[in-house]
Amino acid sequence: MTLYETLADDIESQIQKGVYRHGDRLPSVRQTSQQRQISITTVIRAYLLLESRGLIVSRPQSGYFVNLREGDGPLQGHALSTSKPIAISATVDVSRLVLSTLRSISAGDAVPLGSPYPDPTAFPFEKLNRYAYAAGRDESLRGLKDALPPGHPKLIRQIARRYLEKGMTVDPADVIITVGATEAINLCLQAVAKPGDVIAVESPTFYAMLHAIERMGMKAIEVATHPEQGIDVAALAAIVESQPVAACMVMPNFQNPLGFQMPDARKRELVEFAAKADMPIIENGVYNELYYGSAYPSSLKSYDRNGLVLHCSSFSKTLTSAYRIGWALPGRYRDQVEKLKFLNTLTTASIPQLAIAEFLERDGYEHHLRRIRKAYAQQANLMKAMVSRFFPDGTGMSGPAGGYVLWVELPPKVNAMQLYELALERGITIGPGYMFSTSDSYRNFIRLNYSSPWSAEIEQAVITVGKLAATCAR
């Protein structure tokens, strides 16, 4: 039994004995840490475990209380509100900021709270490399045959089988292997729109979507997005009625940076509207496997009866980012996407494709996923608890249902770029909100990555960012 489990059991015993009664406030995290001579992280984990058992609830800035009614004490501060619709952008240019931020993240030994990537130590890299080495000795892979579009048939079969296991029938002939999900998104966008076209996106939205729009000389229009329900379909419909929109790009499951899982009813509503408007939807599903709940989330593609949903995904967020293997299910645009794949990059390396296919077939992909899902869910609770404790009053945050990022709204006086620079001076990276929009609507927002195993270094980094935010808020 771990130290935090021992502490949780001890407190539970005291509650059952009546030492702590309904409504009583438990000693603070810091007090318990000092009294028991254990780390703050250990105390937080114990309290989170008790919360999961329904014995205690947290009230922001107040502490933990025994057996309060459900909903009286969420971990986060004030709830995030639905974003407001934003006027169409004349140009999209967030790539410079993103590139400079990513360079700072990868430079030196900075604590990667701002990283967009999952922690690679959780990935089975050695096993994949062994399969790649074995594939490299196969003389049949030395030509272009299995590297040309649509991709290696063995990997395509494994992808189709994976969808079937999750309740969605996919014809292997519809799958096109790409160089990561980024290429899949770019190819799909190129297939449905042309330079100068307007593309609807969520607000805030993952900057890879904005990069694709920027790269092709298109214009982005941001649509009001609820932090738990996803894109506002009525707001999207009003935009489509007022001006031509060539396509919509969304991330319905565990959206980066908000982390929500769009309810099935809204997914159906969005797909039905797209069919009525004859508007393609590019669906980014790279986080679909990283759910915290008990069931795999549905995708927009599963509700598509007209071939208008172009579904994109990859193994970069679940298995390895080093191999850069993704895929697209482009629906009615399948032939056009395959042609564009051939014209843009010609091939996708066959050895990484086969290595991943072998792993999927032989090495317990589901077991691997269960392990990282559990870790991310626990680390999400830890990150939320730390932000709740150490960030200034007025801080709000998202409630991720999957993935590995937390979206944090800071008090209005805080400038995220100033906070980013102050944190960087102390060897800590964060994701400033400017990267997730074509405007400055998220100037007081940041994104935090919690995929790395919790450590004293990460704990101190979060506390430091919270203190810096409090200074900027004055």
UniProtKB/TrEMBL annotation:
CDD domains: AAT_like (cd00609), WHTH_GntR (cd07377). Keywords: Aminotransferase, DNA-binding, Pyridoxal phosphate, Transcription, Transcription regulation, Transferase. It comes from the Bacteria. Residues 1-69 form the HTH gntR-type domain. The keyword Metal-binding does not apply. Gene3D superfamilies: Aspartate Aminotransferase, domain 1, Type I PLP-dependent aspartate aminotransferase-like (Major domain), Winged helix-like DNA-binding domain superfamily/Winged helix DNA-binding domain. The keyword Transmembrane does not apply. In the C-terminal section; belongs to the class-I pyridoxal-phosphate-dependent aminotransferase family. This is 2-aminoadipate aminotransferase. It comes from Pandoraea terrae.
